[in-house]
Amino acid sequence: MTDAPRPFRPPPYPYDRLAALRESAEALPGGVVDCSVGTPCDPPPPTVVRALALSGTERGYPSSAGGPAFRRAAADWLARRFGVNVELSAIAACVGTKELVASTPHYLRLRNPGRDTVLCPAVAYPTYAMGATLAGCRAVAVPPERPDGSGLDLDAIDPDDARRALLLWANSPANPSGGLTDLEGLASWARRRNVPVFSDECYAEFTWEGSPRSILQSGSRGVVAVHSLSKRSNLAGVRAGFYAGDPELVGYLRDVRQHAGLMVPGPVQAAGAVALADDEHVTAQRGRYLERLELLASLLTSAGCPVAVPAGGFYLWVPVPARWPDAWAMAAALAADGGMLVSPGDLYGEGGREHVRVAVVQPDERLRLVGERLAAAGWKGDDRQVAGEGRQAPGDDRQAPGDGRQAAGGGGLEARDDAMGIESATAARAAGGGGVASPSAG
Ligand SMILES: Cc1ncc(COP(=O)(O)O)c(C=O)c1O
Predict the structure, then answer these.
(1) What is the atom index within ligand 1 of the atom nearest the CA of 175?
(2) If you classify domain 46-277 with CATH, what class do you get?
(3) Tell me, what DSSP letter sits at residue 207?
(4) pLDDT tens profile 260-272
(5) How far is the CA of 396 from the centre of ligand 1 (A)?
(6) Topology agreement, domain 14-42+281-431 and domain 46-277
(7) Does the C-beta of 171 come closer than 6 Å to ligand 1?
C-alpha cells in the first residue's frame, strides 16, 4: 500500500446546488426573486461606465501590479475612508478578489514551503478553504466567537496550527453573518505569533455599527487588507480589486502574480480609478442596502422568521425557526411559498446549518412581492405553527418564532416591523457612520 495523495475532484459549486430550489421559485407567477448570491443589482455610476469605454488603453498590455492612477486612487481612498497612508509600492491590483483569495495560499507556500496551513473562519465565504485545498494545504477552521457564527475565537487556535499557518483569513463585516471582528486585537495576536493576516474587507463600506474599519489602522506589519470594487461600486462584472499592506508580503505576491500573467485589463483599471475617487455613489448605495435590509428583516419577521439587521454587509442571516428541521427545508419553503431563492447556511460551513443567508440584492418591489406571497400563503409571526405546518421534525423542540427569542445578528439592532420604525432607524444609521470618515477616523 502506498500513501499516494488522492486526486482532487472539484466538488459541486455551492450555488449550483440550488437548482431545484430555483425551479420551484421560478414556477410562481412573477418568477424567482433571487437573493442567493451577493451579486449587485444596482448600476455603477455613469462616469465609471464612460471611463470603461473611453480609456483608450485597449491596445497595450496593462501593468500587472496596477498602473499608478489605479494605485493612487486606491491609496487616496484608504486615506479618506480609514485614515491610513500606504505607499503605492505596497498596493497592487487583483482581478476581482476571489482569484486572490483562491490563489494566495499557493503563492505563499512557495514563499514559505515549511508551512502548510490556512486558518479560516469556520462559518465563512467558502473560497478561503478552497484556496487551501487548491494549494494542497490544510484548511483549519477557527471557531466563531458568537453563536451566530461571527467573530474569531483566537484562543481556540491550536498553537501547532498557528506555527504551521501560511496565513489567517479574517472577514469583517463578515459574509454570511454580518458580524464585525476586532481587527486590532487580531493583528496583535497574529504579530506575536508571526502569522500573516489577510483581512478581506470587501463589505467595509457597508458597516452599520460604528465606522468602517481596516486592519491597516493597526499598522501594516504582517497584515494585508483586501478590497473589491464589486460590492462598493456595483462592478462585480468588471473584476477589479486590490490588496495593500505589509510591503514584503504585497511585493512577493505582486512579483509572483506578474509571472503568472495576472492583469486587471486597462479599461477596468481606468474605471476602477474613477470609482475609487467617488464617494457619492457609495453613500447612495449604503442608503439602498440599509433600507432593503430593514424592509426584508421586517417582512420576514412578520412572516414568522425573526431576524435582525446585521452589524455590516448586505445579508440577512436568518435563524431557522423551529418548524423546519434544517436550513435546506426552510430554503425550500421560502422558494415554494415566497418564490425567494436563499442560500442554506451550511454552504458557508457546518456551523451555518441553522441559518439561511438572504442577500438584499433585489429591488424593493421584488422584496415586497416576497412579503405578499408569504402573507398569502399564511406565513405569520405570531403563530407557533404557521406555513409549513407538519414540516417540523419529530422531536424538534426548538422554540417557535414569534415567542420572543432573540433573532440573529449578535449585537445587531432589532428588526422593526412598522413603516415608521424602518424609516427612523434607516435615517439614524445612514447618518451615523454613513458619511466618509475623516482622515483622523483611524
Ligand atoms: C467575503 C467575500 N470575499 C470576496 C468576494 C469576492 O468578490 P470579488 O471577486 O467580486 O471581488 C466575495 C463575493 O461575494 C465575498 O463575499
Answers:
(1) 1
(2) alpha beta
(3) B
(4) 999 999 999 999 9
(5) 35
(6) no
(7) yes
